[in-house]
Design a protein that fits this description.
The protein is an alpha/beta fold. The chain has two domains: 2-40 and 202-269 and 362-416, FAD/NAD(P)-binding domain (3-Layer(bba) Sandwich), CATH 3.50.50; 46-102 and 133-197 and 270-358, D-Amino Acid Oxidase, subunit A, domain 2 (D-Amino Acid Oxidase, Chain A, domain 2, 2-Layer Sandwich). Helices cover 30% and strands 25% of the residues. The protein is built from ten helices and 19 strands. The protein has helices at residues 10-21, 81-99, 105-128, 145-150, 152-160, 170-176, 200-213, 256-260, 325-338, 384-399, and strands at residues 2-6, 25-29, 46-48, 73-75, 134-142, 166-168, 188-198, 217-219, 224-228, 233-236, 243-244, 247-250, 270-280, 291-294, 299-304, 307-316, 350-358, 365-368, 374-378. The strands form three sheets. Strands 3, 4, 5, 6, 7, 13, 14, 15, 16 and 17 form a ten-stranded mixed sheet that branches. Strands 8-2-1-12-19-18 form a six-stranded mixed sheet, covered by helices on one side. It has a three-stranded antiparallel sheet with strand order 9-10-11, with no helix packed on it. Helix 1 runs parallel beside helix 7, helix 1 runs parallel beside helix 10 (384-399) and helix 3 (105-128) packs across helix 10. It binds flavin-adenine dinucleotide (FAD). Flavin-adenine dinucleotide binds at residues 6-12, 29-32, 37-40, 43-46, 53, 223-224, 251-253, 255, 274-276, 300, 311, 354, 356-357, 378, 380-386.
Length: 417
């Protein structure tokens, strides 16, 4: 088939690779001048386990509050009615997650996809000999017993799926991550040995090359202004005629909702902004070996080669182009609490703000849109890097009429109709 992909973030690139490997003729349209320039640019790097990534699902790993100085989710001045409707659904889902004793279906779907994606990423990395910055293990730090209570649904989902999530005391936690500051109180931690960190952008650059070797074309500085169906088509900015394809796969991150709306498909997809600080390593002894997550603040501190990346924060309704000062303050504070002296904080520190393409129940949408020829791989929220390889493989199988390796229950667009 002749297939167009809209968007070259991590989801578009992995989809291009899988479709090209399946023998399709693939063209990727990207409005920016390179791949992974939007949400996929400076992710926290957490690959596994997926539900452990802060803000990956409502109630899964965060005690959720909107008001006051300690708010975990900040409301910006440009909040829209769509954002508010999304927030209402997210809060309702979070309440259901925390009240229920059994993990909720969206969390189960997220965990299933994340595990599959992690396995598939390993297969690709081995088969293609992809060399990118990565490290093994994830440690969730608990500052108080209340942190452990907030994490119960997520821990249950991991254990039900057979992922080892070991409760360890503070001494053991400090043995696993010897750089942890001794002066910061710690009641214990959750250790996930199969956790992993990887450099998302590096992986995307490598996989793009592999997709190109298979014949995929990437057209940069090219904005898709409209999608069409029956027949599937994309209208490009500056062109009079829409270009026809056998199928169009939408991987446009937060911009996807606006492209679908004129086709009559309304999705509750919003931009949930977060920030990341990347700083060069100052002293490896005082830095994380792999991933450390501060459960109370929902901040991850990860090791990416010779750098440390601190990421977190959630903001609905943008306040301006720059990273939110209070989110940045929290990131620096959490870094200083756990790894003071680990990073060089003068000079070449990169502060970044990105928009997570978030749906109100957590998992993405993978599969048919319901409109002939238009396919969806979008809404990966806070864990798009962790989910990308599996999502792309499952979408490719579905598009070809094959049964995917995992059930896609709970990952369809129909759940929002
Ligand atoms: C602070 C922060 C930390 C994060 N940490 C993690 C983490 O540790 N682990 C994890 O798994 N995930 C993490 N995430 C989430 C992850 O970054 C996203 O889920 C993922 O990058 C989404 O990928 P995407 O390809 O869907 O979107 P994007 O990367 O945004 O790609 C969409 C692309 O579509 C293009 N596009 C949009 N509209 C058009 C158009 N009309 N025409 C042409 N092109 C278009 C855009 O330019 C963009 O390149 C984090 C996110 C943030 C903000």
């Amino acid at each position: 088939m002749n297939i167009a992909i809209v968007g070259a973030g991590i989801v578009g690139v992995t989809t291009a690779y899988e479709l090209a490997r399946d023998g399709h003729s693939v063209t990727v349209f990207e409005q920016r001048s390179a791949i992974a320039e939007e949400a996929s640019f400076a992710t926290g790097g957490l690959l596994a386990p997926g539900p452990l990534v802060p803000w990956s699902a409502p109630g899964a790993s965060q005690a959720f509050s909107v008001w006051g100085r300690q708010a975990t989710l900040r409301i910006g001045r440009s909040i829209t009615t769509t954002d508010l409707a999304w927030l209402h659904r997210w809060r309702r889902a979070a309440r259901a997650y925390t009240r229920s004793h059994a993990p909720q279906p969206p969390l189960v779907a997220l965990e299933r996809l994340a595990r599959y994606s992690h396995q598939h990423l390993h297969t690709l990395a081995n088969e293609l000999d992809l060399q990118f910055e990565r490290s093994a293990g994830a440690l969730l730090l608990l500052r108080s017993p209340a942190d452990a209570i907030a994490l119960r649904p997520m821990v249950q989902a991991l254990r039900d799926a057979g992922t080892a999530a070991n409760e360890v005391d503070a001494n053991t936690a400090r043995h696993i991550e010897p750089g942890l500051c001794a002066a910061t109180p710690l009641v214990g931690a959750l250790h996930v040995p199969s956790g992993e960190v990887g450099n998302c952008r590096q992986f995307a650059l490598l996989l793009r090359q592999e997709a190109q070797h298979l014949g995929a074309q990437f057209q940069f500085n090219t904005t898709v202004t409209r999608l069409g169906h029956t027949p599937a088509s994309v209208q490009l900015s500056g062109e009079a005629q829409a270009r026809r394809f056998d199928a169009v796969v939408l991987c446009a991150g937060v911009a996807s909702a606006a492209l679908l709306q004129p086709l009559g498909l309304r999705l509750p997809l919003v931009a949930l902004h977060g920030c990341a600080i990347s700083a060069p390593l100052r002293e490896a002894l005082y830095a994380p070996c792999s991933a450390v997550i501060d459960a109370r603040h929902q901040v991850s501190i990860t090791r990416l080669g010779q750098r440390i990346r601190v990421s977190g924060g959630a903001e609905l309704g943008r306040t301006g182009p720059a990273a939110h000062p209070s989110i940045l303050r929290t990131l620096y504070q959490v870094l200083n609490d756990w790894f003071p002296g680990g990073a060089q904080l003068s000079g070449s520190v990169q502060e970044w703000r990105g928009a997570r393409p978030a749906l109100p129940d957590g998992p993405p949408i993978i599969g048919a849109s319901g409109l002939p020829g238009v396919w969806l791989n979008l809404g990966h929220g806070a864990s798009g890097w962790a989910l990308a390889c599996g999502s792309a493989r499952a979408l490719t199988d579905t598009l070809a009429g094959r049964t995917p390796d995992i059930s896609l229950e709970g990952l369809d667009a129909q759940r929002f109709r």
